[in-house]
Amino acid sequence: MNNKIAVLASGKGSNLKAILEAVARGDCCAKVEVVICNKADAGALQIAKKAGVPHVYFINPKDYVGREAFDAACSQVIQDADCKLIVLAGYMRILSESFIQTFPQHIINIHPSLLPSFIGADAVGDALRYGVKVSGCTVHIVTKELDSGPILAQSCVPVLIEDDHASLHARIQEKEYEIYPDVIDKLIKDS
Ligand code: GAR
After folding, report:
1. Which of 12, 123, 147, 159 is the most exposed place for a label (fewest CB within 10 A)?
2. pTM of the prediction?
3. What CATH number does the domain containing 103 carry?
4. Which residue ranges have their beta carbon within 6 Å of ligand 1?
C-alpha cells in the first residue's frame, strides 16, 4: 500500500504536528514523505525537520514567474517522491487549475468553518463578525472552486459570547487535530 503523503503548509504547522503525532501513535496509517512550505519562517518547516520527514522544502514563490510555474515545481517534488495524497494544512495559496488536474480527487484541505459558510482567508473572523452561534471545521476535496469541493468530514464547536479570534480559532483547531488525521487514515485505507 502506498501510504505516502505530501503536506503543504504556510503557517505555524499545528495540523502537520497533529498528523505526525497521530502517525507516531499508530492512529493514522500515512507516511508523511514530503512537506512543502511557501514561507521561509513557517513553523511547519521546523516541525517537519524535527520529526524526520524525508523531504522538507521551502519553495519561494518569488523564484518563479507566476502561479503555474511555482505549482509545477511543487508538483515535481510530490511526483518524484511518489506521494498519493496531497494534504493542505494551512496552505494559504490558491492552487492553479493545472496543479489540481495533475492530482484529481487526491488533494484535500482543512478549513476553519462549517462550509459552505465562510469560505476564504479569514473564516474565523468572518464567523465572529456574522455572529453565528456554532462554527467548526471542514475537510473537503479540493476542486477549482475555492473551498467548495465535496465534504469529507466536519466537526462543530460552540461560539461563546466572550470569544475573540484567538479563542474561537483555538477551539476549532482542537477539532481539526482530531478529524484531519482520521480522514487521511480512512482515505488511504479505502484506496
Ligand atoms: C487552520 O486552522 C486551517 O484550518 C486554516 O489555517 C490554519 C492553519 O493552522 N486554513 C485556512 O484558513 C485555509 N483557508 P496550522 O498552521 O497551525 O495548521
Report:
1. 12
2. 0.97
3. 3.40.50.170
4. 9, 11-15, 89-90, 110-112, 123, 137, 173, 176
